[in-house]
Design a protein that fits this description.
Shape: elongated
Distance between the termini: 67 Å
Strand order of the largest sheet: 1-2
Number of strands: 2
Number of helices: 1
Oligomer: single chain
Mean pLDDT: 93
Strand content: under 5%
Structural class: little secondary structure
Length: 133
């Protein structure tokens, strides 16, 4: 496979029917990038600003999404007064998923199937039954 390097330049790429496996993109601006009908298994994104990212009709089975939020203390872009804009999950199949060590303050859950869902080991269905009594 031929290696093509694009270094310290501004380019707009139009890529179609291409095999870009094992490529690396570092310190790049990809604002407005659109990907359609792509395979990106085992793709990794590190230290990225993905504000306003939209993922639609994607298969995320086995995905590991972690350390999401504003830059932590000690990071050059850390701002103690900054607040992240809320995320929105809509029409997602999250059955069997795990959420741990997350700040869920102010989260609203509505019109969702909560069968078997637990919070700290307690069934949400039981919590709702107790609440409604």
């Amino acid at each position: 496979m031929k290696l093509i390097e694009i270094i310290n330049t501004a380019k707009q790429l139009n890529v179609r029917e291409a095999m870009l496996e094992n490529s690396t993109i570092k310190t790049a601006c990809l604002n407005g990038l659109q990907m359609n009908d792509v395979s990106a298994t085992n793709m990794k994104i590190f230290d990225a600003n993905l504000s306003d990212l939209e993922i639609c009709y994607a298969q995320l089975g086995g995905a590991y999404i972690h350390s999401i939020g504003l830059p932590p203390e000690g990071h050059p872009n850390y701002d103690a007064n900054a607040r992240q804009r809320p995320l929105k999950f809509d029409d997602c199949y999250l059955a069997g998923s795990t959420v741990t060590n997350c700040d869920l303050s102010g989260v609203a859950i509505s019109d969702c199937n909560l069968t078997g869902t637990t919070i700290n080991g307690i069934l949400v269905e039981d919590l709702l039954k107790a609440y409604h009594k």
